[in-house]
Each structure stands twice: as structure tokens, then as C-alpha cells.
Amino acid sequence: MEIAFLFVILFGLLLFGVPVAIALAGSSALYILANGMPPPMVVAHRMINGVDSFPLLAVPFFILAGNLMNTAGITERIFNFALALVGWMRGGLGHVNVGASVIFAGMSGAAVADAGGLGAIEIKAMRDAKYDPGFAVGVTAASSTIGPIIPPSLPMVIYGVVAGTSIGQLFAAGFIPGIVMALSLMLMVAYFARRRNFPRDQPFVMSVLVSSFGRAFLSLMTPVIIVGGILSGAFTPTEAAVAACAWAMFLGLVVYRTLTMRRFLRVTFDTIETTAVVLFVVGAASIFAWILTSNRVPEAAAGMLLSASDRPWIILLLINLILLVVGCFMETVAAITILVPVLLPVAVELGIDPVHFGVIMVLNLMLGLLTPPVGMVLYVLARVAKIPFERCVVATAPFLLPLVLVLGLITFVPAITMWLPTLIYR
């Protein structure tokens, strides 16, 4: 009953529009005061311990790297290369949208960075080519979810910290599922292109492809440096984030000379603001998760799920439904911090590898970025495209179908996720 009070307060605050971090911290504080739990100093220590983690250093550096790439013109070069590579296909700019997101995913690891930076370029290009703005927003929103699946990935860093799982293995596990997501979205674009008779945006010209590749070559080296360095053991995921920042600054300041001091300061302040929000959510969610653990809620939830059926596939379906619903209402970092201690023991009991479960969880929560009422990517793209939020929701809905199908495939065919980390690490 007391735990029910905790959740009632949390969701009540969220319904009134209170920010997620404050809602988590506030509901936890009220619960602690009502039940005479440890003094405020102990709570403060718990919050500090929640963010006192070396792997979490990757968060501000990957955010900074993504912001630097969007500001220094790296994103635009990637888009132009993708245009030369697949722009000749029917509905070419839709395919370019997906292809550019795959490349950018190997640099930033954040869906919102993809939507806000690369998405602005993609939507403008599609509008100039007379594509329907709704279609442009839909494919941009859906393709941005690839960013946190293909390494590097900010949500997987958070999951790895909370679950005590190798972040390197999580990164390796996300690569093939991310490619499968991209292929499914390109099939959806091809379907719309044939149905609506979209044009071929430009002819395939080898000289244009070669020249655009030459201009984007150093930018394309970013994912090679990040992913190659991690998988080869040259540096840890945290050190890879630092390397990504250093490389982006080198390109912006020395090679392209597009990164001025004014722009760099603006990017730095944006990064500080975003990082502060993320870590505030992590700290507040760690208190909430500690209360749940102290009251043995994970054990009770595991018992309920495991008693629902003796068939693992049914329990996996239930877990996916829970994650999909939570993703609609809760910010990704908070959801991971709270739900991992609850759901991971159930997954382990079913014989699911924690790395495999991490990819399932992150993909589920990425779909939450495309659904109201939270739908952070939708809010960003509504602002970028200057169209109503409701129209963004309707335009994105068809692209949820291939992503849900990929989620089912990844859930029930573990080899798609586990083949690469098994090959590299085990």
C-alpha cells in the first residue's frame, strides 16, 4: 500500500507537468518523510552514489561530440555523401534520411541529437524537393531511433552502469539490430515511394559519389575511431567518448575551420545544460530505485511475472508491453534506472543474457520517443519542421510498424543480438 502511494504521487506529479527528475525526487522525498526513513543526508549520499560512476563520464563527452558535429558542418557532409550514395533510388531522400542516421549513429549515440541536428538538414532538403512535410517528419523521427542502438549509445551506457554489464559488449550487441532497423525502415520508405509515386531525386553519378566521399572522408572516420577503438580494446567506451570529442574539435577547428570560439562556447553551454538534466534524472531515479529495492518490489514483481505463465515467450511479451507503456510516459534514463533492478532478475531467471536484455530494453524505450505524451523526438521535430505536434504523431505512426516487428525479431531471435559480442568478447 505504501509503494502504491509512492507511484500515485509520482504519476500525479507527471500529469501536472512536473519535470521527470523533480517528480522522481519529490515523490521519493514525500515517501521517506511519511515513513520515517533515513535522514536527508543519507538520501543525498544515495543520489551522489547514483552518479558517482566512471562509465557515466561518457555521457557528457558523447553529448558534446554530437553537438560539435552538428555545429562544425560534419553532419552536412555526411548527409551529402548519403545523398550521392542512395539518392538515385525512388523516394531517394527518404533512403538518404535513414542512411545518414546510420552513419551519424556511430558518432553521437543519442536520438534527440540525431533529430535536432541531422533532422533539420534532412527535413529542409525533403521540403525543398516537394516531399510531404508529414512524411519527412515521420521517416526522420523513426530513423533517429537507430542512434542509440548502433554504438556508441548513451542509453546503453546508463543500462551498463545500472545492470553492472559490460558496456563494450552492449555496444557490440547493438550493431546488427541497428542495421536490421535501418533495412526495415528503407523497405517502408520504398513502399511509400511506390504507393505515392515519389521521384528519383538525382541520378547516380560515380564522380559525384567519389567527390562527396572525399569531402566526408574524415567525418566518416569518426565512427571508425569510436567503434574500432572500443572493439579492438584500444580504449574503453568512456575514453572513446573523449576521443570522439577530440576528433570533432580537430575537424571543426583545424580541418574545416567552421568551429568558431563563439560556436564552441554555445555548444559547451548546451552540453553542460543537457548533462546536468541527465545526471539529475539519474540521481533522482537512483533514490526511487533504492526505495523500491528496500521494499523488495523487484522480488515481488519478478514473482508476479513468473507466476503469470510457465512459457518464457509469454513473459517476454509481457515485459515488452510493460516497457512500451513505460516508454510512453517516462524519460529513457529514468525508466532504465528504475526498471532494470525490477525486470533484469526476471530476464536472467528466463535464461536471457543481460546484454541481450539491454538491447531489448533500449529499443523498447526508443519507441517511447515516438509516442505521446512524452515523445521527445516528436516535440523536437515539430519545432524543427514547424508543424503541429498532432500531425507529427500521425505521420510517425506508420513507421512504428517495422520498428515493432524488428523488436519482436530481436526479442525472440537472440542470435541477431548476441552473435557479434560472442564473437569478439567470448
From TrEMBL:
Protein name per the record: TRAP transporter large permease protein
Coiled coil stretches, renumbered: none
Transmembrane annotation, as ranges: 47-66, 78-96, 102-121, 133-150, 170-192, 204-234, 240-259, 271-293, 313-343, 355-379, 399-420
Pfam families for the chain: DctM
Assigned keywords, A-Z: Cell inner membrane, Cell membrane, Membrane, Transmembrane, Transmembrane helix, Transport
NCBIfam families documented for this protein: dctM (TIGR00786)
Origin species: Oceanicola granulosus (strain ATCC BAA-861 / DSM 15982 / KCTC 12143 / HTCC2516)
Membrane topology of this protein: Multi-pass membrane protein
Function: Part of the tripartite ATP-independent periplasmic (TRAP) transport system.
